[in-house]
Write a structure and sequence with these properties.
- One of its GO terms (molecular function) is transmembrane transporter activity.
- Keywords: Membrane, Transmembrane, Transmembrane helix.
- Residues 247-441 form the Major facilitator superfamily (MFS) profile domain.
- By secondary structure, this protein is mainly α.
- The chain has helices spanning 2-11, 19-50, 55-66, 72-81, 91-108, 118-146, 152-181, 183-197, 199-203, 222-227, 232-243, 246-276, 281-310, 312-332, 340-367, 374-402, 405-424, 428-440.
- The longest helix is centred in the first third of the chain and has 32 residues, at 19-50.
């Protein structure tokens, strides 16, 4: 009896056996993504704006570092095909991605005179994004493998909230360190936190009986063997079978447009507040961090619950409508722009509802995934979203060269409107029936 009890206790330390461990692990891994993202996508653009770099230069930097996130669609099938199965289907790739993230994050701090070496800054930022995307693909694949369907909305809430908080904290801390210690010391200091997080995937296994490292004892779990795809032909034919379904295509287009919204707002905010409103990079980072943390906390504890209770499609449309009204309202009220409390309120509400929107979109995307190629299909949606983010970031500089901020904001407000139209015509029930038919053939 004692041996049996001991075995049960040991089993609880595996991701497949312990829901609390799953939530903690995946939240921590998403924090690891948020730290470098806070520096590259937010702190550096604000720092560049503070040092009088043009909107086109800043938007170009953000667009370039956003490109690798579109490569996720190429990474996922490779991970589905190859792995060290005795260590788990995705855990080896999580460890590899985290290692690359540590090295690339350290390298960006070694650039000499980054303000006058924007090309080198872009290259280093590109590799940070590449390994961040790599770790993200592996983590999402592990989530789909070990988290039960009924827990996925809640898990997405915790994960996205954790990433938002990690991004916000690295933004405010990174900005303060850049101003006090300089660029190199600031980035090197934050990279230490990213390095420590690798201990999580190193010491926690997906399923019982697996190896911690290639040289330790253990073997592949039977569930992992059954799920592992062993031929490129099967992977490609299965992907093609599901991506041509109408709901998959519609969600893919919606993901691109929603990503463009994210890229446009997150690129224009530091430029708009610093160069148009006269804020400092410190004041911008503090406001954005506070509002992001609030959005992240509410997302962690309420985002998934709202989706579970009211339904993802309904909540997505509500969030999109609110965001459209917020951005459109800001465009039509330029006489309030000088009021810092008004701008703070806008950023707070945008952060809150965009966090909720992402949780809803992720949950809806997972619902459309076919289990056979779920990791690759979900990654496709995320890759399309990040492609849209890069496009949206690049558009900001072009639009600002052609028109005033009022019209730039109005153009941005069109994104949620288009996404609402697309989401409304997705038929989740019909799509699931198709997937059930695939399972029987």
């Amino acid at each position: 009896m004692k041996l049996k009890t001991l075995q049960l206790e040991r089993n609880r330390l595996f991701l497949s056996e312990n829901p609390v461990l799953r939530y903690i692990t995946f939240s921590t891994l998403y924090i690891a993504q948020g730290i470098p993202e806070g520096i590259t996508f937010f702190a550096i653009p604000a720092w560049l704006a503070m040092n009088n770099k043009t909107p086109t230069e800043i938007a170009s930097f953000v667009a370039v570092i956003g490109i690798p996130w579109s490569f996720k669609i190429l990474m996922a099938p490779f991970m589905d095909r190859f792995t060290i199965l005795a260590m788990g289907r995705k855990r080896p790739w999580v460890i590899f991605g985290q290692l690359g993230l540590i090295v690339s994050f350290l390298s960006i701090g070694l650039i000499h005179d980054p303000l006058n070496n924007l090309n080198e800054l872009m290259i280093a930022g590109f590799f940070i994004s590449f390994f961040g995307a790599f770790q993200d693909v592996a983590t999402d694949g592990m989530v789909i493998d070990v988290v039960p369907l009924q827990e996925q909305a809640r898990a997405n809430g915790l994960m996205w909230g954790s990433k938002t908080i990690g991004t916000a904290l690295s933004l405010v801390i990174g900005t303060a360190l850049i101003n006090m210690l300089g660029f190199t010391s600031a980035v090197s200091s934050l990279s230490i936190a990213v390095a420590f997080i690798i201990l999580v995937p190193v010491f926690i296994r997906e399923r019982s009986g697996e190896k911690l490292m290639p040289w330790t004892d253990g073997k592949a779990h039977e569930n992992s063997k059954k799920s592992q795809l062993k031929s490129w032909k099967k992977i490609i034919t299965s992907i093609l079978k599901v991506v041509i379904l109408p709901s998959t295509i519609i969600m893919g287009i919606a993901s691109i447009i929603n990503g463009a919204l994210y890229g446009m707002v997150d690129t224009l905010l530091p430029i708009f507040t610093i160069q148009q409103l006269g804020w400092t990079n410190t004041s911008y980072s503090e406001v954005y961090s506070i509002t992001s943390v609030v959005g992240g906390i509410f997302g962690m504890f309420a985002g998934g619950a709202l989706v579970d209770f009211f339904g993802d499609k309904k909540m997505i449309i509500i969030y999109l409508f609110i965001i459209m009204v917020l951005i459109g309202g800001l465009a039509f009220l330029p006489h309030f722009w000088s009021n810092d409390k008004f701008i703070f309120g806008f950023i707070l509400l945008y952060s809150l509802f965009y966090t909720f929107l992402c949780i809803g979109m992720f949950a809806a995307s997972m619902k459309l995934c076919w289990q056979v190629v779920a990791a690759t299909q979900f990654t496709m949606f995320m890759a399309l979203s990040n492609m849209g983010r890069a496009i949206g970031s690049g558009l900001v500089g072009t639009l600002k060269d052609l028109m005033s901020w009022e019209y730039v904001l109005l153009c941005t407000a069109l994104s949620p409107l288009f996404t609402i139209i697309l989401v409304k015509i997705i038929n989740f029930k019909e799509h699931r029936n198709k997937l059930n038919t695939f399972n029987k053939t």
